[in-house]
Design goal:
Length: 95
């Protein structure tokens, strides 16, 4: 469970999670996965386990990542940008 809205901390967490997504898909049947799965919901919780925001991951991004057409960093940045648009990420680099 992630308990932060800090962009750098979220980036570190997502960078660690992304290879797990890839491994899970490769251990299954990647072709079948991408045929069957339409969306993945990523949820950010606060310290009371209340939902702060839920973001749906673009399966095309995940497929590009698994196919090595997108780096881990690019994938993470796209997810973080989507979370920022939803108001779930504090971009401390603007301070």
């Amino acid at each position: 469970m992630l308990l932060t809205t800090d962009r750098e901390e979220l980036a570190e967490e997502l960078e660690a999670l992304a290879p797990g997504f890839e491994q899970a898909i490769r251990n299954a049947d990647a072709e079948e996965f991408f045929e069957e799965v339409e969306e993945i919901k990523f949820t950010l919780y606060d310290e009371n386990k209340e939902t702060r925001v839920a973001v749906f991951l673009d399966i095309e991004w995940l497929q590009q990542f698994v196919d090595d057409d997108m780096t881990n960093e690019e994938f993470v940045n796209r997810v973080l940008n989507q979370m920022e648009q939803a108001g779930a990420v504090d971009d401390s680099s603007d301070s």
